[in-house]
Amino acid sequence: MGYGDHLMAIGAASRQHLEDPQRRLVAIGDGCRVESDYSDLEHGLSFLANQRTVDAGAPVTWIISYKAFRPYHDHAAMEAQWSLAHPARRRLFGRPDPRTLVDRLGYYVFNPQYRAEPAPLVLTSEEAGLADKLGQKPFVLIEPHIKSTASPSKRWPFERFAAVAETLSREIEIYQVGSPELPALAKARRITTHSFREALPYLKSARLYLGPEGGLHHAAAAMGTPAVVLFGGYVPPSVTGYAMHTNLTGGATACGSQHRICRHCEAAMANIQPDHVLLAVREILQRPD
Ligand SMILES: [Zn+2]
């Protein structure tokens, strides 16, 4: 949860704004409070409302998306499944608190109708200048890590990323962005970035992004950059993935499991061999520009 969720919300807000004949501003949040934790992404996005606009009573429409409620989860189905599994508790205590629903149920149910839309992020002139400069020499951006709060089911083994980087580095330069505390790929040019936003020019100018399902794959879509995304078995690519990307599941159907270790997700990731990833990467790199 975090930047990726907000990027999806910005993508949805952009579409909502364009489809609104009155072109009202769109607020992202719970219907009263605007989600402001990721406002650094909103540079130049004039269709978004901030809290001041909402408080001033300006006509806005909402994208309901906040920490305990993301629209790509099917909250009604989750409540129904929990009630079916625990009829006595449901009778005694009534509806479960939506904030604790996933912990009680043990898994997410995804909203099969939801489709992620690329967020139309705007680079600052400084960022666009850096992207232009970087883009003069082709490179692939690899992110081998998942964020510490992400489900471990999203992790493809680091050694496999390293094997892919090793082979690819003979063909094209490899970049890795992020915090210097995390292990580096031996073959990558390491760029220390201090914020999510700092990675955007690198994503914009990369020929391709390779990494897990997460904030950077949403940002790659926002930058219009092709990607090979290691989905595995946790979340369905039809929901949080983009048609412009190659999304690898290892043949699994998404489970949404909240267990620290999900054997099904481990098996899904184990099914994705470095050779499969290299094939998908090369297929994209060989496309004409
Ligand atoms: Zn699983």
Name some characteristics of this structure.
289 residues; six-stranded parallel beta sheet; single chain; Rossmann fold; 3 domains; 8 strands; binds zinc ion; 12% strand; alpha/beta; two-stranded parallel ribbon
Explained architecture:
With 289 residues, this protein is an alpha/beta fold. It folds into 3 domains: 3-64, no CATH class; 75-105, no CATH class; 125-285, Rossmann fold (3-Layer(aba) Sandwich). Helix content is 36%, strand content 12%. The chain is built from 12 helices and 8 strands. Helix 2 (51-55) links the parallel strand 1 and strand 2 (60-64). Helix 1 runs parallel beside helix 9 and helix 7 (158-168) packs across helix 12. The chain is globular. Zinc ion binds at residues 153, 233-234, 255, 257, 262, 264-265.
Structure ligands:
zinc ion
Strand order of the largest sheet: 5-4-3-6-7-8
Q: Give a quick account of the main beta sheet: strands, pairing sense, barrel closure.
A: 6 strands, parallel
CATH architecture grouping of the largest domain: 3-Layer(aba) Sandwich
Briefly note the CATH topology name of the largest domain: Rossmann fold
The N- and C-terminal alpha carbons lie at a distance of: 33 Å
- The residue-averaged pLDDT reads 95
What is the 3D form?
globular
Number of beta strands: 8
CATH class of the largest domain: Alpha Beta
| Rg for CA atoms | 20 Å
The proportion of strand residues reads: 5-15%
Q: What does the secondary structure layout of this molecule look like, with pairings?
A:
Blueprint: H1 3-19, E1 25-29, H2 51-55, E2 60-64, H3 75-85, H4 87-93, H5 101-105, H6 125-134, E3 139-142, H7 158-168, E4 173-178, E5 189-192, H8 200-205, E6 208-212, H9 215-222, E7 227-230, H10 237-240, E8 246-248, H11 263-271, H12 274-285
The protein binds zinc ion.
